[in-house]
Structures are given as structure tokens and as C-alpha cells.
Amino acid sequence: MDAGITRQQALGLLKKYNKEEFHIQHALTVEGCMRYFADTLGFGADADFWALCGLLHDVDFENWPEEHCVKAPELLAEIGCSEALVHAVCSHGFGICCEVEPKETMEKVLFAVDELTGLIGAAAKMRPSKSCTDMELSSLKKKYKDKKFAAGCSRDIIERGAQMLGWELDELLQKSLDAMKSCEAAVNAAMSAQ
User: Fold this and answer.
1) How confident is the model at residue 3, as a pLDDT?
2) How does 102-111 read in b/e, with b if 16+ C-beta sit within 10 Å?
């Protein structure tokens, strides 16, 4: 699949509309997770496309939270993103803030993983290591079941994502944890270099 853009263009657009460190770190994390999923699910040839969709998925959120996934096409058009990338970015808001339905495997992964990376990241911050690299699934499941923990991370959205993919919740949790482990060092290095 063709994104129609380079990573440099994507990162430039992200940083044009996102100044908060948290939002940039989240974008880089989802980018890394999406690349991991492309590689492990047999879509390695499209890994760059998956990663760019992850990087840009929240491009409009910081400045236009009430228009999330509705404003995105206008911003993505600035750098000439392909229709496939625009559809993918918008589809992660399906049933939440827009009606663009995830159709491709990549779009379903983005829908499922976006919310979950926030919960895993919050759980990692509570650990002595401040890292997810030494986190086990059992530990993540405890945090997941505690509705007061990372209350802003919707369990309903995460579970809908697992259903879209035809995965058990535990499978989604484990794969997403592995995805975050795979890119944590690179994300931390990128954030330090800002």
C-alpha cells in the first residue's frame, strides 16, 4: 500500500500540529507498534505504510479534539497523503468520533492498539523500571481489570478492537505488549533527541 508521503513529511506534519510531548510520544509509540504488527502478521511489505498510519493517526487531536478524525483529512491533504492512509487514520475513530469503518486488517489493528498503548504505557510508569520491557501479561491483566487504573483508556474500545480482529482479549494484550517492548528503546531515544 502506498502512503504517498515520506516519514520525514509525516513527522513534519505531526510536529506542526502537535507540540505536547505526550502526544508526540504516543504517535511514535503507535508508529512502532504498527510496524511490529505488520512484520509479525505477514504484512512486512507494507510495514512503512502501517507505521505512517500509526504516526499520523492523532494528527488533529491536540488542536481539534472535538473534530478528531473529521479534521484529519484536511491536514493530511497538506502533504498529499494517499486516500488509503486518510481512510486508515479516520477509521480508528469509528463509532467514537466518526463513521469511517475499519475494513483492512491494518485499520482494525490501529483501532485496537491505539487505546491499549495508553494503558500499557501507564502501567509501565508504575513499575520500578518505568519500562514495559520487564512486564508480564499477568501484571498487565491486573491493571486492565482495575477500572480505576488509566480510567481514560476505554476497555470497551479495546475489546471491540479484539472482536474486529477475531482475537481473544489476552491475545491482543500480549501482542500489544510485545509490540511496545519492540519499540520502547527507539521511542525513548527519539524523545530524548527532541
Assistant:
1) 76
2) bebbbbbbbb
pTM score: 0.96
pLDDT at 125: 94
The Cβ of residue 79 has, within 10 Å, a number of other Cβ atoms equal to: 17
- As a whole-number percent, the residues of the chain with pLDDT over 70 amount to 100
Closest CA to 143 of 180, 118, 165, 112: 118
Would you state the pLDDT for residue 5? 85
Spans of all domains in the chain: 7-192
Q: Which three cell numbers stand for residue 82?
A: 494517499
DSSP string, the chain: ---SS-HHHHHHHHHHH---HHHHHHHHHHHHHHHHHHHHTT-GGGHHHHHHHHHHTTTTTTT-GGGTTTSHHHHHHTTT--HHHHHHHHHTTBTTTB-----SHHHHHHHHHHHHHHHHHHHHHTSTTSSSTT--HHHHHHHHH-TTTTTTS-HHHHHHHHHHHT--HHHHHHHHHHHHHHHHHHHHHHHHT-
Which tens digits make up the pLDDT trace of 132-160?
A: 999 999 999 999 999 999 999 999 999 99
